[in-house]
Write a structure and sequence with these properties.
This protein has a single domain, classed as TolA/TonB C-terminal domain (2-Layer Sandwich), CATH 3.30.2420. The protein is built from 2 helices and 5 strands; from the N terminus they run βαββαββ. By secondary structure, it is α+β, with helices and mostly antiparallel strands. A hairpin with a 5-residue loop joins strand 2 and strand 3. Strands 3-2-5 form a 3-stranded antiparallel sheet, with helices on one face. A two-stranded antiparallel sheet has the order 1-4.
Length: about 80
């Protein structure tokens, strides 16, 4: 079982006014030391700010840390964005 130890998503108030909701699906590798590498966007519906959201997800996910494990593996997750004004 994987245990996510830390995650953080970069926020930007300007974007919340442009695209109040969206979704980004990303795949990544979890190393034996629990670090995340090789992230890639599999799907994204955050138009018209797709590039901005995708970049923020990729920047953020490499900061995630999982518990150490015996072997590396691939993982995936979905980021759902919703801002309430």
């Amino acid at each position: 079982m994987l245990a996510l130890l830390h995650h953080e998503l970069v926020d930007d108030d300007k974007v919340s006014r442009i695209a109040p909701r969206g979704k980004v699906i990303v795949e990544f590798t979890i190393g034996i030391d629990g670090t995340v590498s090789d992230p890639s966007v599999v799907d994204s519906d955050t138009v018209p700010t797709k590039d901005w959201f995708n970049a923020r997800v990729l920047e953020s996910i490499v900061k995630w840390r999982y518990a150490a494990m015996v072997t590396s593996c691939r993982g995936s997750t979905t980021f759902n964005f919703t801002w309430k004004h």
